[in-house]
Amino acid sequence: MSEIFSERNMIEALKKYIPAGETLSAGIHAVSKETDVTELYGKCIYTESGLMPSENGGVISVHKKKFATCDIYFGITQSFFVLADCERYSHAYEFDDGPEAGGEGIKEVTSFLTFTDIGTCFRLADIKTCEIKKGMMGSVKCFITMKNGSYFKLMFPKLGGLGGGMPHHAQYREAILQRLARQG
To answer: Of 86, 102, 112, 143, which residue is 20 to 30 A from 166 by alpha carbon distance?
Structure first.
Protein backbone atom coordinates (compact mmCIF):
# COMPACT_ATOMS: atom_id res chain seq x y z
CA MET A 1 0.00 0.00 0.00
CA SER A 2 1.29 3.44 -0.89
CA GLU A 3 2.12 5.57 2.12
CA ILE A 4 -0.06 8.40 0.80
CA PHE A 5 -3.17 6.26 1.36
CA SER A 6 -2.74 6.29 5.13
CA GLU A 7 -5.18 8.11 7.38
CA ARG A 8 -2.47 8.50 9.99
CA ASN A 9 -0.07 10.11 7.48
CA MET A 10 -2.88 12.36 6.25
CA ILE A 11 -3.70 13.58 9.76
CA GLU A 12 -0.02 14.31 10.47
CA ALA A 13 0.38 16.24 7.21
CA LEU A 14 -2.78 18.34 7.71
CA LYS A 15 -2.18 18.94 11.43
CA LYS A 16 0.79 21.24 10.66
CA TYR A 17 -1.51 23.78 8.97
CA ILE A 18 -4.57 23.73 11.23
CA PRO A 19 -4.95 27.05 13.11
CA ALA A 20 -4.93 27.10 16.90
CA GLY A 21 -8.34 26.37 18.40
CA GLU A 22 -9.51 24.37 15.37
CA THR A 23 -9.74 20.59 15.00
CA LEU A 24 -9.84 18.43 11.91
CA SER A 25 -13.45 17.42 11.19
CA ALA A 26 -12.77 15.41 8.04
CA GLY A 27 -9.84 14.74 5.73
CA ILE A 28 -9.32 12.77 2.53
CA HIS A 29 -6.82 11.99 -0.18
CA ALA A 30 -7.63 14.14 -3.21
CA VAL A 31 -6.08 15.06 -6.54
CA SER A 32 -5.17 18.64 -7.34
CA LYS A 33 -5.52 19.41 -11.04
CA GLU A 34 -4.62 23.10 -10.81
CA THR A 35 -4.05 25.67 -8.09
CA ASP A 36 -3.46 29.40 -8.21
CA VAL A 37 -3.15 31.00 -4.78
CA THR A 38 -2.43 34.64 -3.95
CA GLU A 39 -1.68 35.72 -0.40
CA LEU A 40 -0.45 38.97 1.14
CA TYR A 41 2.16 39.02 3.90
CA GLY A 42 3.25 42.06 5.89
CA LYS A 43 6.22 43.08 8.02
CA CYS A 44 8.51 40.65 6.23
CA ILE A 45 11.35 40.35 3.77
CA TYR A 46 11.81 37.81 0.99
CA THR A 47 14.69 35.33 1.35
CA GLU A 48 15.90 32.43 -0.76
CA SER A 49 13.75 29.89 1.08
CA GLY A 50 10.84 31.86 2.56
CA LEU A 51 9.59 34.99 4.24
CA MET A 52 11.38 36.35 7.29
CA PRO A 53 9.75 38.70 9.82
CA SER A 54 11.14 42.24 9.78
CA GLU A 55 9.80 45.37 11.48
CA ASN A 56 11.16 47.34 8.51
CA GLY A 57 9.76 44.90 5.96
CA GLY A 58 6.91 45.77 3.67
CA VAL A 59 3.96 43.91 2.21
CA ILE A 60 4.74 41.09 -0.21
CA SER A 61 2.20 39.50 -2.53
CA VAL A 62 2.97 35.80 -3.07
CA HIS A 63 1.49 33.88 -5.99
CA LYS A 64 1.81 30.09 -5.64
CA LYS A 65 0.78 28.10 -8.70
CA LYS A 66 0.72 24.52 -9.89
CA PHE A 67 -0.72 23.48 -13.24
CA ALA A 68 -0.02 19.76 -13.02
CA THR A 69 -1.84 16.88 -11.37
CA CYS A 70 -0.59 15.91 -7.92
CA ASP A 71 -1.83 14.02 -4.85
CA ILE A 72 -2.88 16.13 -1.88
CA TYR A 73 -4.69 15.78 1.41
CA PHE A 74 -7.77 17.97 1.81
CA GLY A 75 -9.26 18.59 5.24
CA ILE A 76 -11.86 20.78 6.88
CA THR A 77 -12.12 22.19 10.38
CA GLN A 78 -14.90 24.24 11.91
CA SER A 79 -13.89 27.39 9.96
CA PHE A 80 -11.14 26.43 7.49
CA PHE A 81 -10.14 24.09 4.72
CA VAL A 82 -6.56 22.88 4.73
CA LEU A 83 -4.34 21.45 2.00
CA ALA A 84 -1.13 19.44 2.32
CA ASP A 85 0.97 17.84 -0.40
CA CYS A 86 1.19 14.05 -0.11
CA GLU A 87 4.73 14.10 -1.45
CA ARG A 88 7.26 16.82 -2.17
CA TYR A 89 6.15 18.76 -5.27
CA SER A 90 7.44 21.83 -7.05
CA HIS A 91 5.26 24.91 -7.36
CA ALA A 92 5.81 28.14 -9.28
CA TYR A 93 6.17 31.22 -7.07
CA GLU A 94 5.94 34.87 -8.03
CA PHE A 95 6.60 37.74 -5.65
CA ASP A 96 5.47 41.34 -5.94
CA ASP A 97 5.41 44.31 -3.65
CA GLY A 98 1.96 44.23 -2.15
CA PRO A 99 -0.37 47.14 -1.45
CA GLU A 100 0.54 49.76 1.10
CA ALA A 101 -0.30 49.21 4.77
CA GLY A 102 -4.00 49.04 5.49
CA GLY A 103 -4.73 46.59 2.69
CA GLU A 104 -7.28 43.88 3.39
CA GLY A 105 -6.19 40.29 4.03
CA ILE A 106 -2.56 41.00 4.96
CA LYS A 107 -1.10 38.32 7.23
CA GLU A 108 1.67 39.52 9.51
CA VAL A 109 4.73 37.27 9.44
CA THR A 110 5.75 36.59 13.06
CA SER A 111 8.13 33.67 12.46
CA PHE A 112 10.02 32.36 9.44
CA LEU A 113 7.57 31.07 6.81
CA THR A 114 8.86 28.57 4.26
CA PHE A 115 7.45 28.69 0.75
CA THR A 116 5.90 25.24 1.18
CA ASP A 117 3.83 26.57 4.11
CA ILE A 118 2.25 29.28 1.94
CA GLY A 119 -1.19 28.54 0.52
CA THR A 120 -2.18 25.73 2.87
CA CYS A 121 -5.02 27.11 5.02
CA PHE A 122 -8.11 29.06 3.92
CA ARG A 123 -11.23 30.38 5.64
CA LEU A 124 -14.39 28.62 4.51
CA ALA A 125 -16.13 32.01 4.76
CA ASP A 126 -13.75 33.34 2.08
CA ILE A 127 -15.07 30.93 -0.55
CA LYS A 128 -16.76 32.92 -3.31
CA THR A 129 -18.03 29.97 -5.35
CA CYS A 130 -17.76 26.20 -5.19
CA GLU A 131 -18.86 24.14 -8.18
CA ILE A 132 -19.29 20.43 -7.53
CA LYS A 133 -19.81 18.05 -10.46
CA LYS A 134 -19.81 14.30 -10.93
CA GLY A 135 -16.63 12.88 -12.44
CA MET A 136 -15.61 9.54 -13.86
CA MET A 137 -15.84 6.30 -11.87
CA GLY A 138 -17.67 7.88 -8.92
CA SER A 139 -15.24 10.74 -8.45
CA VAL A 140 -16.33 14.32 -7.81
CA LYS A 141 -14.82 17.40 -9.44
CA CYS A 142 -14.63 20.46 -7.25
CA PHE A 143 -13.76 23.97 -8.45
CA ILE A 144 -13.30 26.41 -5.56
CA THR A 145 -12.87 30.14 -6.17
CA MET A 146 -11.93 32.39 -3.28
CA LYS A 147 -13.00 36.01 -2.80
CA ASN A 148 -9.41 37.18 -3.47
CA GLY A 149 -9.30 35.38 -6.86
CA SER A 150 -7.34 32.30 -5.74
CA TYR A 151 -8.74 29.04 -7.09
CA PHE A 152 -8.43 25.27 -6.83
CA LYS A 153 -9.42 22.60 -9.35
CA LEU A 154 -9.69 19.38 -7.37
CA MET A 155 -10.90 15.83 -7.81
CA PHE A 156 -12.14 13.79 -4.87
CA PRO A 157 -11.88 10.06 -5.71
CA LYS A 158 -14.67 7.68 -4.74
CA LEU A 159 -12.23 5.42 -2.88
CA GLY A 160 -9.33 6.24 -0.58
CA GLY A 161 -6.88 3.87 -2.26
CA LEU A 162 -6.46 0.13 -1.99
CA GLY A 163 -5.40 -1.68 1.15
CA GLY A 164 -7.79 -0.11 3.66
CA GLY A 165 -5.42 2.63 4.85
CA MET A 166 -8.19 5.23 4.70
CA PRO A 167 -11.23 3.46 6.17
CA HIS A 168 -13.23 6.68 6.69
CA HIS A 169 -12.70 8.10 3.17
CA ALA A 170 -16.33 7.79 1.98
CA GLN A 171 -17.75 9.25 5.21
CA TYR A 172 -15.23 12.13 5.27
CA ARG A 173 -15.63 12.87 1.55
CA GLU A 174 -19.39 13.22 2.02
CA ALA A 175 -18.90 15.57 5.02
CA ILE A 176 -16.46 17.71 3.02
CA LEU A 177 -18.76 17.90 0.00
CA GLN A 178 -21.75 18.87 2.15
CA ARG A 179 -19.74 21.61 3.86
CA LEU A 180 -18.34 22.98 0.58
CA ALA A 181 -21.81 22.96 -1.01
CA ARG A 182 -23.09 25.16 1.84
CA GLN A 183 -20.21 27.62 1.38
CA GLY A 184 -20.40 27.94 -2.42
So the answer is: 143
